[in-house]
Amino acid sequence: MTAHNVSIALPDGRAYEIRIGSQLLGEPTSWQGLPKSAAALIVTNDRVAPYYLERLRSALLARHASVEALVLPDGEFHKDWVSLQTVMDTLLERQADRKTVLYALGGGVIGDLTGFAASIYMRGVPFVQVPTTLLAQVDSSVGGKTAINHPLGKNMIGTFYQPARVIADLDSLDTLPDRELRAGLAEVIKYGPIADAEFLTWIEVNLDALLSRDKAALAHAVRRSCEIKAWVVQQDERESGLRAILNFGHTFGHAIETGLGYGAWLHGEAVGCGMLLASDLSARTGRMPADFVDRMRRLLERTSLPVVAPALGVERYMSLMRGDKKSEAGEIRFVLIEALGRAGTHAAPDDLVAQVLETHGGA
Ligand SMILES: NC(=O)c1ccc[n+]([C@@H]2O[C@H](COP(=O)([O-])OP(=O)(O)OC[C@H]3O[C@@H](n4cnc5c(N)ncnc54)[C@H](O)[C@@H]3O)[C@@H](O)[C@H]2O)c1
Ligand SMILES: O=C(O)C(=O)C[C@@H](O)[C@H](O)[C@H](O)COP(=O)(O)O
Ligand SMILES: [Zn+2]
Predict the structure, then answer these.
(1) Is 190 marked as a binding-site residue?
(2) Is 274 exposed, middle or buried, given 0-12, 13-18 or 19+ CB atoms closer than 10 A?
(3) pLDDT tens digits for range 266-283
(4) Which of 56, 147, 162, 231 has the fewest CB atoms lying closer than 10 Å?
(5) Which ligand has its closest atom nearest to the C-alpha of 267?
(6) What's the gap in Å between 169 CA and the centre of ligand 3?
(7) Which of 145, 152, 325 to mutate to test the pocket of ligand 2 (most atoms within 8 A of CB)?
């Protein structure tokens, strides 16, 4: 399979490539052109390390005299201060200098955490994203949002800090559990209603191929998702407007993740369910026809993503969503679909939000 590159160009001449293909980890050209330094630190977790750590380490030894690894405990629950402190301790104990390159080997949890660490260690060292989940390949490794969670809110502490490159090796998806593959598909589905109606139809037609891990279908899904994300991020790197469309389903979704405790539902599961609720809110506010909600429900059900929200109660949802980063002066703002392939950020009447929660199990 040939590799596909998606480029992302940002202000001040900053740019980087997202390389998508097979056998990229062991391919020397994957790493060419990246900062060459004496030392590198691979940050990964105890689930991913047995599969891919040695493969990455041996590829990097051609570029760095020393390639060390930090293996963190696995899980969303560990995207926190303690893990961040562990990365800082490791860098300081090894006297890592400001040319040290960090490599994030894993899913979105490792990517967000390592990116954040790279952005603050000595006020910034280079880092490379090596995403190994579908979700990370289609979304989290691209665009430079880094963060850790706080018990009171998801991704509340973080920075915007871009990687030097993204290496999305599709072969790493071979070992991904089915539940994680389906969670990743939630973020793929997201790109259809917000930006590309044809892509939504393509996903519907090719869903069985994606679920059976057909490499060509996965390659197309990753590439198109990255193209759309790059198109958005290039226009609005720091989310002053347009970028918020990438948060479709996340206002409800983040409330679910925080409300249940991190890790109870996967991020993609919470976003999938959140997209159904946000689709319904788009219909109830008169922006979309009711059959769009049915269409989203059918697609999410076929993907085995949850379509019944956890019953946290309307007041708890409201309180959690008021803490969302898109809120302004205590007013919750939702990403709503305005037409297939177009979205925007809007406030919504509380009674309609309550109706949505009552209809889909959240109350
Ligand atoms: N920065 C962004 O723009 C952005 C975008 C979307 C999501 N996120 C964040 O990403 C996180 C979710 O990412 P995720 O879904 O990748 O979760 P994750 O990082 O927890 O990975 C999912 C699970 O799969 C395991 N795993 C990873 N690669 C594997 C492989 N190849 N084979 C077998 N197991 C593997 C992980 O160890 C973990 O158990 C959330 O914290 C979310 O907030 C960030
Ligand atoms: O890149 C973005 O912008 C996104 O919103 C992508 C989301 O899928 C992702 O979950 C992101 O981390 C959510 O951002 P947040 O600012 O709401 O924490
Ligand atoms: Zn997300």
Answers:
(1) no
(2) buried
(3) 999 999 999 999 999 999
(4) 231
(5) 1
(6) 20
(7) 145
Instruction: Specify the amino acid at residue 332.
Output: I
Would you please indicate which residues are annotated as catalytic (active-site) residues?
Answer: 123, 145, 187, 229, 239, 243, 247, 250, 254, 267
Residue 267: name the closest of 280, 281, 250 by CA: 250
Who's near 270: CB < 8 A, 6+ residues apart?
A: 252, 253, 254, 256, 257
User: Does the structure show a pLDDT above 80 at 40?
Assistant: yes
- Give 106-118 pLDDT, tens digit per residue: 999 999 999 999 9
Tell me the per-residue pLDDT of 201-217, one tens digit each, with 9 for 90 and over. 999 999 999 999 999 99
DSSP letters along 122-177, please? GG---EEEEE-SHHIIIIITSS-EEEEEETTEEEEEEEE---SEEEEEGGGGGGS-
Neighbours of 92 (CB within 10 A): 11
Atom of ligand 2 nearest to the CA of 254: 17
| Phi, psi dihedral angles at 62 (to 5 degrees) | -75, -15
pLDDT higher than 70, residue 1: no
- What is the ipTM, given to two decimal places? 0.99
> Ligand 2: which atom is nearest the Cα of residue 158?
18
Mean pLDDT of the chain: 97
CB distance 325 to ligand 2 below 6 Å: yes
List the residue whose alpha carbon is closest to atom 2 of ligand 2.
Answer: 246
Evaluate: CB of 48 within 6 angstroms of ligand 1.
yes
Going by pLDDT thresholds of 50, 70 and 90, the confidence category of residue 4 is confident
Name the pTM for this structure: 0.98
Residue 285 to residue 281: CA distance in whole angstroms: 6
Widest Cα–Cα separation across the chain: 61
pLDDT of residue 221: 98
Name all domains of the chain by residue range, CATH numbers in brackets: 4-175 (3.40.50.1970), 178-359 (1.20.1090.10)
Nearest-5° angle of CA 144, CA 53, CA 44?
40
